[in-house]
Amino acid sequence: MATDAAVCSGDEKTAHLKRLPSASDPEGGLSLFRADLLDYDAMAAAIAGCQGVFHVATPREMLGPAITGTKNVLEAASAAKVRRVVVVSSMVTVEINPKNWPKDKIKDESCWSDKEFCRNNEDWYSVAKITSEEVALEYGRQIGLDVVTINPALVLGPLLQPIRSLHNVVNADAGGPDRMRDKLWHIVDVRDVADALLLLYEAPGASGRHICAPHFVTARDLLRLLKRMYPGYPCINEESISDMDKPAPMTSDKLRKLGWSCRPLEETIADTAEFCEQAGFLGDLQGAPCRFPPVYNKI
């Protein structure tokens, strides 16, 4: 596993990885490399001898590094003659104001978000994700490298390490927005994403893009589900959620046809809440209502 040197600066950053089952196995255990996506030689050293590559990193702030980093990974993978590269993209490359796509038509892998729309809104993360996925697929075709992409939805579930994520469905941020849009949210469990990644590497029939967004629920229905599952937690009122038109959802049928399956949404939410409790994220509510994170109102 290659880790960004700017992010992984000490043992505390990788301790949870070293605790993984079989991580210390001398035959096929975990190896960690300090690597910079912008440094081709560093990526080549990390990928040398690998049969497959999972590229999961996209810098949030800068478009150039996202594209250059993706190309460096693909070039190093090609030089190492890996069998396949699995690139983790995002649902934001599918669902944001797609051109010439009727609102009532279910979105599949042929649907692309409007990159110029995202650029005009200064949504640079989505621009980077769209561009990186385009580059990965086209570059793979040009150099004859087997590249497949996966487009996960909002990822929930228990984490390997106790850090607070912006995307936790249970959020105790008293500074969160007082009002929410009744947006249609697509959700997937992090463990199901991991299963999908392995499947896409192994399945002979995998090709191109693969949407990984099995559950879709409105903000209002998600709030009702949380209140039903956790009646003791303070939550915002339904009146705080504003109505809005909703487009048709995305489909994960292509991934399912490869043999992928997923957990029920209720199981994912229950395990997410249990993780948040054990990590101490819910111990400081003090009567403040749980809110969805502010980012939910921006995308």
Quick overview of this protein structure:
With 299 residues, the protein is α/β, with parallel strands linked by helices. The chain has helices at 11-18, 40-47, 63-79, 92-95, 115-120, 124-143, 190-202, 219-229, 253-257, 265-278, and strands spanning 2-4, 33-35, 52-55, 84-88, 147-152, 154-156, 180-181, 184-189, 211-212, 215-218, 241-242.
Describe the structure in your own words.
It is a single chain. The chain is α/β, with parallel strands linked by helices and 299 residues long. The chain has a domain at 2-163 and 186-215 and 250-266: NAD(P)-binding Rossmann-like Domain (Rossmann fold, 3-Layer(aba) Sandwich). It contains ten helices and eleven strands. The protein has helices at residues 11-18, 40-47, 63-79, 92-95, 115-120, 124-143, 190-202, 219-229, 253-257, 265-278; strands at 2-4, 33-35, 52-55, 84-88, 147-152, 154-156, 180-181, 184-189, 211-212, 215-218, 241-242. The protein has a four-stranded parallel sheet, sandwiched between helices. Strands 6-8-10 form a three-stranded mixed sheet. Helix 3 links the parallel strand 3 (52-55) and strand 4. The longest helix is centred in the middle third of the chain and has 20 residues, at 124-143. The protein starts with a strand and ends in a 21-residue tail after the last helix. The relative contact order is 0.13.
